[in-house]
């Protein structure tokens, strides 16, 4: 981390009205002398913040980050890495006190600050952003509910955050986490909403950084865990399509490291879009094989052609807004994800990637999928190794 900036404490005069909206200490308003593209993000990123200490948990990084979506899967790793370098992390949450409890221990005393908010209420968003100089948006959801549409969660909320961050005037970095494959022509509504969110965020804040992670793997992931749970229950895995769709799964910690690396690069990543895929391109079948190896189960698949998978998934979508009670969230058969799986989702050739952030992503085989051992029948140490695996059907 770089040392102290001499520009700390310099203020441009044009933001006094913003300071009235968000009455903050002066230290949050430096670095806005040269607004680019009419935005209020500091052109030098966070490079001129005051830093103290050796860079560990009890140091001061100068970063005060509001992490929207911190209560989710990626959120815990982002918060942990921010806290580890001595940042203060404001954690907006909408659920119960339990939703953020695990984050509290990640930082020094008082460094993790949970704040109740309502994502539909601008004043409450302003309140959780008021003291921040960095905003990270991890809000997203891959299925719709009765209350929240894809568009609202994945697009409108991001747009609202960007508008408020722009108004704020003291936000030096805005990082928007989108999704690999986000495109206005995607067959998935989720990915179309993510594409719209990127456009809106960059429209409001051209210096924002957009991260597009591929499907994320890790202890709390929603792909290998769902598969392993299904296999444990039913002894087979439905393979949607014929299992040949190419994906590029990425270790969640690498994505969190990319967010932090972008924050620390003092502006080089501002206004850029990064595609974060793992080191290997796998078909869904190959990923499932990895899962079976780790849980030490004999792989049994049932191929579910796309039309049948869509037919299985459709009733929930049709009934979602029609029945007067909430429906279960889809795990294996999510219509929108089935639509997304009809095309390959890999990092494009000319995209900025982990390499441009100085990160070498982990291979999945090994530590990133080791958490699956908890699904082994009879305990983590039970079962044959992959090479010794024996087809149980061969022994009647
Ligand atoms: N997981 C993946 O494989 C993957 C892959 C590519 C991109 N992404 C994107 O990366 C980001 C983080 O992913 P993740 O896996 O950490 O997601 P996650 O575990 O589902 O967490 C999402 C976060 O968004 C919040 N959220 C969801 N719906 C909300 C709503 N209606 N109002 C307010 N907050 C809401 C959740 O808050 P609550 O805890 O209150 O629900 C949670 O904090 C998301 O934008 C996701 O789309 C994920």
TrEMBL record:
Protein name, per record: NAD-dependent epimerase/dehydratase domain-containing protein
CC per GO annotation: mitochondrion
Record-linked InterPro entries: ComplexI_NDUFA9_subunit, Epimerase_deHydtase, NAD(P)-bd_dom_sf
Organism: Trapa natans (Water chestnut)
Pfam family, one: Epimerase
NAD-dependent epimerase/dehydratase domain residues: 66-277
Gene Ontology molecular function: protein-containing complex binding
SUPFAM superfamilies tied to this protein: NAD(P)-binding Rossmann-fold domains (SSF51735)
Source superkingdom: Eukaryota
Gene3D superfamilies: NAD(P)-binding Rossmann-like Domain
């Amino acid at each position: 981390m770089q040392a102290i900036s001499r520009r700390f404490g310099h203020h441009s005069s044009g933001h006094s009205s913003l300071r009235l909206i968000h009455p903050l200490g002066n230290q949050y308003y430096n670095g806005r002398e040269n607004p680019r593209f009419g935005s209020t993000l500091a052109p030098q990123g966070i490079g001129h913040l005051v830093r103290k200490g050796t860079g560990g948990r009890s140091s001061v990084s100068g970063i005060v980050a509001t992490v929207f979506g911190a209560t989710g899967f990626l959120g815990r790793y982002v918060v942990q890495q921010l806290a580890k370098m001595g940042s203060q992390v404001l954690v907006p949450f909408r659920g119960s006190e339990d939703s953020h409890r695990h984050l509290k221990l990640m930082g020094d005393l008082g460094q993790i600050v949970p704040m109740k908010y309502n994502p539909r209420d601008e004043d409450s968003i302003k309140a959780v952003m008021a003291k921040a100089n960095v905003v990270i948006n991890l809000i997203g959801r891959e299925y719709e509910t009765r209350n929240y549409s894809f568009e609202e969660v994945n697009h409108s909320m991001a747009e609202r955050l960007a508008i408020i961050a722009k108004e704020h005037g003291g936000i030096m970095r805005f990082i928007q986490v989108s999704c690999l494959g986000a495109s206005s022509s995607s067959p998935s509504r989720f990915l179309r909403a993510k594409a719209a969110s990127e456009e809106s965020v960059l429209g409001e804040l051209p210096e924002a950084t957009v991260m597009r992670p591929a499907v994320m793997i890790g202890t709390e992931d929603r792909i290998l865990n769902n598969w392993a749970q299904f296999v444990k229950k039913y002894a087979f895995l439905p393979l949607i399509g014929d299992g040949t769709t190419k994906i590029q799964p990425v270790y969640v910690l690498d994505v969190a490291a990319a967010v932090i690396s972008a924050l620390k690069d003092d502006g080089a990543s501002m206004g850029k879009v990064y595609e974060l895929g793992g080191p290997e391109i796998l078909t869904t079948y190959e990923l499932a094989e990895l899962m079976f190896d780790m849980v030490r189960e004999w792989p049994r698949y049932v191929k579910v052609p796309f039309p049948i998978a869509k037919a299985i998934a459709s009733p929930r979508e049709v009934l979602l807004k029609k029945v007067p009670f909430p429906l279960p969230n889809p795990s294996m058969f999510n219509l929108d994800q089935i639509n997304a799986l009809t095309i390959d989702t890999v990092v494009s050739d000319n995209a900025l990637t982990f390499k441009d952030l100085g990160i070498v992503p982990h291979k999945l085989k090994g530590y990133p999928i080791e958490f699956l051992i908890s699904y082994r029948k009879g305990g983590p140490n039970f079962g044959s190794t992959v090479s010794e695996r024996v087809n149980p059907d061969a022994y009647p």
